[in-house]
Please model this.
Amino acid sequence: MDNPPFLSLQKITDYTPDCNTIQVFAKCDDFIEALCKRLAVPIPPFTLHRRARVSTHQEEEGGRVNISVTGLDTDEDLPYSFIKVINSTLDSVNLSR
Model:
């Protein structure tokens, strides 16, 4: 494609497109949705999947238990940050083996 479309939310003053270039100032999702609707191309439904790994580790001295919660990407098991705050309340928990 010699002159691909230019899609941006803001006008870039130092960008001088060729006469054959299309400039669109919109959000990508809005533009693609409108384009697919115009072309009668269905957009498949999207489902967001999130995973968390919970692990515990008991310290040798003092018996303190550390609980770790890590967000993970569902496809490649890579760390992914989607957890902001975790609140917990423990009432007389016995973690002995």
Remarks:
- The helical segments are 28-39.
- The chain has a mean pLDDT of 77.
- Residues 17 and 36 are 25 Å apart (CA to CA).
